[in-house]
Design goal:
five-stranded mixed β-sheet, globular
Length: about 250
Protein backbone atom coordinates (compact mmCIF):
# COMPACT_ATOMS: atom_id res chain seq x y z
CA UNK A 1 0.00 0.00 0.00
CA UNK A 2 1.44 3.36 -1.02
CA UNK A 3 2.26 5.96 1.65
CA UNK A 4 -0.12 8.40 -0.04
CA UNK A 5 -2.91 5.84 0.20
CA UNK A 6 -2.25 5.27 3.90
CA UNK A 7 -2.39 9.02 4.57
CA UNK A 8 -5.75 9.33 2.79
CA UNK A 9 -7.19 6.50 4.89
CA UNK A 10 -5.74 7.94 8.09
CA UNK A 11 -7.45 11.25 7.36
CA UNK A 12 -10.84 9.54 6.96
CA UNK A 13 -10.41 7.57 10.19
CA UNK A 14 -9.34 10.59 12.23
CA UNK A 15 -12.30 12.58 10.93
CA UNK A 16 -14.73 9.82 11.95
CA UNK A 17 -13.22 9.50 15.44
CA UNK A 18 -13.07 13.26 16.03
CA UNK A 19 -16.68 13.68 14.91
CA UNK A 20 -17.76 10.93 17.29
CA UNK A 21 -15.77 12.50 20.13
CA UNK A 22 -17.42 15.88 19.52
CA UNK A 23 -20.91 14.38 19.46
CA UNK A 24 -20.26 12.33 22.58
CA UNK A 25 -19.03 15.37 24.50
CA UNK A 26 -21.94 17.49 23.32
CA UNK A 27 -24.59 14.90 24.12
CA UNK A 28 -23.10 13.56 27.34
CA UNK A 29 -25.82 12.35 29.67
CA UNK A 30 -25.53 11.87 33.42
CA UNK A 31 -26.38 8.24 34.25
CA UNK A 32 -25.81 7.78 38.00
CA UNK A 33 -27.13 4.22 38.21
CA UNK A 34 -25.15 3.07 35.17
CA UNK A 35 -21.98 4.70 36.46
CA UNK A 36 -22.02 3.11 39.89
CA UNK A 37 -22.93 -0.29 38.48
CA UNK A 38 -20.66 -0.32 35.40
CA UNK A 39 -18.13 2.51 36.02
CA UNK A 40 -18.15 5.91 34.37
CA UNK A 41 -15.45 4.85 31.91
CA UNK A 42 -17.56 2.01 30.52
CA UNK A 43 -20.63 4.23 30.17
CA UNK A 44 -18.64 6.90 28.31
CA UNK A 45 -16.97 4.30 26.10
CA UNK A 46 -20.35 2.81 25.23
CA UNK A 47 -21.74 6.21 24.25
CA UNK A 48 -18.69 6.91 22.13
CA UNK A 49 -18.86 3.54 20.36
CA UNK A 50 -22.47 4.12 19.34
CA UNK A 51 -21.60 7.57 18.03
CA UNK A 52 -18.56 6.26 16.16
CA UNK A 53 -20.51 3.44 14.53
CA UNK A 54 -22.96 6.06 13.23
CA UNK A 55 -20.20 8.16 11.63
CA UNK A 56 -18.20 5.15 10.42
CA UNK A 57 -21.01 3.93 8.22
CA UNK A 58 -21.23 3.00 4.59
CA UNK A 59 -19.90 6.33 3.28
CA UNK A 60 -16.41 6.07 4.81
CA UNK A 61 -16.19 2.36 3.95
CA UNK A 62 -17.03 3.10 0.31
CA UNK A 63 -14.47 5.90 0.30
CA UNK A 64 -11.71 3.72 1.78
CA UNK A 65 -12.63 0.91 -0.62
CA UNK A 66 -12.30 3.23 -3.60
CA UNK A 67 -8.94 4.55 -2.39
CA UNK A 68 -7.57 1.02 -2.04
CA UNK A 69 -8.86 0.02 -5.49
CA UNK A 70 -7.20 3.08 -6.99
CA UNK A 71 -3.97 2.19 -5.17
CA UNK A 72 -4.10 -1.15 -7.03
CA UNK A 73 -4.44 0.53 -10.41
CA UNK A 74 -8.20 0.26 -10.92
CA UNK A 75 -10.42 2.84 -12.50
CA UNK A 76 -13.17 3.51 -9.99
CA UNK A 77 -16.54 5.13 -9.46
CA UNK A 78 -18.77 5.15 -6.42
CA UNK A 79 -22.55 4.96 -6.80
CA UNK A 80 -22.11 3.87 -10.40
CA UNK A 81 -25.29 4.06 -12.49
CA UNK A 82 -25.66 1.42 -15.18
CA UNK A 83 -28.49 1.20 -17.69
CA UNK A 84 -29.00 -2.50 -18.38
CA UNK A 85 -31.03 -3.85 -21.31
CA UNK A 86 -32.43 -7.22 -20.26
CA UNK A 87 -34.88 -9.70 -21.76
CA UNK A 88 -38.26 -9.53 -20.01
CA UNK A 89 -38.14 -13.28 -19.48
CA UNK A 90 -34.92 -12.84 -17.51
CA UNK A 91 -36.47 -10.08 -15.42
CA UNK A 92 -39.44 -12.33 -14.60
CA UNK A 93 -37.03 -15.15 -13.71
CA UNK A 94 -35.12 -12.87 -11.32
CA UNK A 95 -38.39 -11.99 -9.59
CA UNK A 96 -39.32 -15.68 -9.30
CA UNK A 97 -35.91 -16.59 -7.91
CA UNK A 98 -35.96 -13.89 -5.23
CA UNK A 99 -39.58 -14.53 -4.30
CA UNK A 100 -38.89 -18.26 -3.81
CA UNK A 101 -35.78 -17.55 -1.76
CA UNK A 102 -37.54 -15.03 0.43
CA UNK A 103 -40.39 -17.49 1.05
CA UNK A 104 -37.91 -20.24 1.92
CA UNK A 105 -39.12 -22.43 -0.95
CA UNK A 106 -35.62 -22.82 -2.40
CA UNK A 107 -32.03 -22.67 -1.21
CA UNK A 108 -29.75 -20.04 -2.75
CA UNK A 109 -27.25 -21.12 -5.39
CA UNK A 110 -25.70 -18.24 -7.29
CA UNK A 111 -24.16 -20.18 -10.20
CA UNK A 112 -27.42 -22.02 -10.96
CA UNK A 113 -29.46 -18.83 -10.66
CA UNK A 114 -27.20 -16.98 -13.10
CA UNK A 115 -27.56 -19.82 -15.63
CA UNK A 116 -31.35 -19.66 -15.38
CA UNK A 117 -31.40 -15.90 -15.92
CA UNK A 118 -28.92 -15.97 -18.80
CA UNK A 119 -30.90 -18.73 -20.57
CA UNK A 120 -33.36 -16.09 -21.81
CA UNK A 121 -32.07 -14.91 -25.17
CA UNK A 122 -35.25 -14.09 -27.10
CA UNK A 123 -38.21 -11.78 -26.88
CA UNK A 124 -38.74 -8.20 -25.81
CA UNK A 125 -36.25 -6.38 -23.67
CA UNK A 126 -36.57 -3.79 -20.95
CA UNK A 127 -34.13 -1.16 -19.71
CA UNK A 128 -33.49 -1.08 -15.97
CA UNK A 129 -31.34 1.25 -13.86
CA UNK A 130 -28.84 -0.33 -11.49
CA UNK A 131 -26.84 1.62 -8.90
CA UNK A 132 -23.68 -0.12 -7.66
CA UNK A 133 -21.90 1.11 -4.53
CA UNK A 134 -18.50 0.65 -6.14
CA UNK A 135 -17.47 0.03 -9.75
CA UNK A 136 -13.89 -0.85 -10.58
CA UNK A 137 -12.18 -1.70 -13.85
CA UNK A 138 -8.73 -3.08 -14.54
CA UNK A 139 -7.38 -4.75 -17.68
CA UNK A 140 -10.78 -4.25 -19.33
CA UNK A 141 -12.62 -6.26 -16.66
CA UNK A 142 -15.54 -4.44 -15.03
CA UNK A 143 -16.50 -5.29 -11.46
CA UNK A 144 -19.65 -4.11 -9.66
CA UNK A 145 -19.78 -4.35 -5.86
CA UNK A 146 -22.76 -3.98 -3.57
CA UNK A 147 -21.32 -2.91 -0.21
CA UNK A 148 -23.55 -3.59 2.75
CA UNK A 149 -23.41 -3.38 6.54
CA UNK A 150 -21.98 -6.52 8.11
CA UNK A 151 -25.46 -7.46 9.31
CA UNK A 152 -27.67 -6.59 6.33
CA UNK A 153 -31.44 -6.94 6.52
CA UNK A 154 -33.52 -9.05 4.16
CA UNK A 155 -34.67 -6.19 1.94
CA UNK A 156 -31.13 -4.84 1.43
CA UNK A 157 -29.87 -8.29 0.53
CA UNK A 158 -32.70 -9.02 -1.90
CA UNK A 159 -32.31 -5.69 -3.71
CA UNK A 160 -28.57 -6.32 -4.05
CA UNK A 161 -29.16 -9.76 -5.51
CA UNK A 162 -31.68 -8.48 -8.05
CA UNK A 163 -29.25 -5.80 -9.17
CA UNK A 164 -26.40 -8.29 -9.44
CA UNK A 165 -28.51 -10.69 -11.52
CA UNK A 166 -29.63 -7.84 -13.80
CA UNK A 167 -26.00 -6.94 -14.41
CA UNK A 168 -25.12 -10.55 -15.24
CA UNK A 169 -28.13 -10.82 -17.56
CA UNK A 170 -27.03 -7.64 -19.36
CA UNK A 171 -23.39 -8.69 -19.71
CA UNK A 172 -22.12 -12.14 -18.64
CA UNK A 173 -18.57 -10.77 -18.51
CA UNK A 174 -19.36 -8.38 -15.68
CA UNK A 175 -18.09 -9.44 -12.27
CA UNK A 176 -20.50 -8.80 -9.43
CA UNK A 177 -19.98 -9.07 -5.68
CA UNK A 178 -21.86 -8.71 -2.41
CA UNK A 179 -19.31 -7.22 -0.02
CA UNK A 180 -19.15 -6.97 3.78
CA UNK A 181 -16.13 -5.14 5.13
CA UNK A 182 -15.63 -7.38 8.16
CA UNK A 183 -16.95 -10.62 9.56
CA UNK A 184 -18.78 -10.23 12.90
CA UNK A 185 -18.57 -14.00 13.45
CA UNK A 186 -14.78 -14.34 13.22
CA UNK A 187 -11.95 -14.37 10.70
CA UNK A 188 -13.09 -17.38 8.67
CA UNK A 189 -15.89 -17.09 6.11
CA UNK A 190 -17.44 -20.25 7.56
CA UNK A 191 -17.85 -18.35 10.85
CA UNK A 192 -20.19 -15.73 9.40
CA UNK A 193 -23.38 -16.25 11.40
CA UNK A 194 -25.82 -13.38 10.81
CA UNK A 195 -28.78 -15.43 9.64
CA UNK A 196 -30.80 -12.89 7.64
CA UNK A 197 -28.84 -12.82 4.33
CA UNK A 198 -28.64 -16.63 4.21
CA UNK A 199 -32.19 -16.65 2.84
CA UNK A 200 -30.97 -14.84 -0.30
CA UNK A 201 -27.32 -15.94 -0.66
CA UNK A 202 -25.34 -18.93 0.49
CA UNK A 203 -23.02 -16.76 2.54
CA UNK A 204 -20.54 -19.60 3.02
CA UNK A 205 -20.36 -20.98 -0.52
CA UNK A 206 -21.54 -18.50 -3.20
CA UNK A 207 -18.44 -17.18 -4.95
CA UNK A 208 -19.91 -13.68 -5.23
CA UNK A 209 -19.76 -13.19 -1.46
CA UNK A 210 -16.79 -11.22 -0.15
CA UNK A 211 -16.44 -10.90 3.62
CA UNK A 212 -13.66 -9.26 5.60
CA UNK A 213 -10.24 -10.31 4.37
CA UNK A 214 -11.61 -11.57 1.03
CA UNK A 215 -13.32 -8.24 0.44
CA UNK A 216 -10.26 -6.06 1.02
CA UNK A 217 -7.84 -8.39 -0.75
CA UNK A 218 -10.09 -8.43 -3.82
CA UNK A 219 -9.90 -4.64 -3.97
CA UNK A 220 -6.15 -4.71 -3.45
CA UNK A 221 -3.83 -7.70 -3.18
CA UNK A 222 -3.17 -10.60 -0.81
CA UNK A 223 -1.66 -8.27 1.81
CA UNK A 224 -4.26 -5.49 1.77
CA UNK A 225 -6.36 -6.66 4.73
CA UNK A 226 -3.38 -6.91 7.07
CA UNK A 227 -1.94 -3.62 5.82
CA UNK A 228 -5.28 -1.91 6.43
CA UNK A 229 -5.43 -3.22 10.00
CA UNK A 230 -1.99 -1.69 10.58
CA UNK A 231 -3.25 1.69 9.35
CA UNK A 232 -6.21 1.46 11.75
CA UNK A 233 -3.86 0.53 14.58
CA UNK A 234 -1.54 3.45 13.79
CA UNK A 235 -4.45 5.90 13.97
CA UNK A 236 -5.78 4.15 17.06
CA UNK A 237 -2.59 4.83 18.99
CA UNK A 238 -3.43 8.52 18.67
CA UNK A 239 -7.20 8.41 19.00
CA UNK A 240 -7.30 6.05 21.99
CA UNK A 241 -5.64 8.75 24.11
CA UNK A 242 -8.41 11.22 23.29
CA UNK A 243 -11.10 8.61 23.92
CA UNK A 244 -9.64 7.81 27.33
CA UNK A 245 -10.17 11.45 28.37
CA UNK A 246 -13.95 11.33 27.83
Amino acid sequence: MKTETEKKIEKILKKCVNSALARTAKNKTYRPFHEVLLTKEIVNASSFERSFSTSFGQGPIEEISEIIAQDSGHQTKRQKETQVNVYKGAIDEIERICSSLRAGEKSPNWSQEVKKVQAYQKGDTEVRRVISDLWIMKDGIETYISIKTVKPNLDQTEIAKKDMLLLKAHNPNYRTYFGLFYNPGGEKRSEYNWTMPFKIFDMHKDDVILIGKDYWNTLGDSNTYLELLKVFDKVGKETRKAIAKL
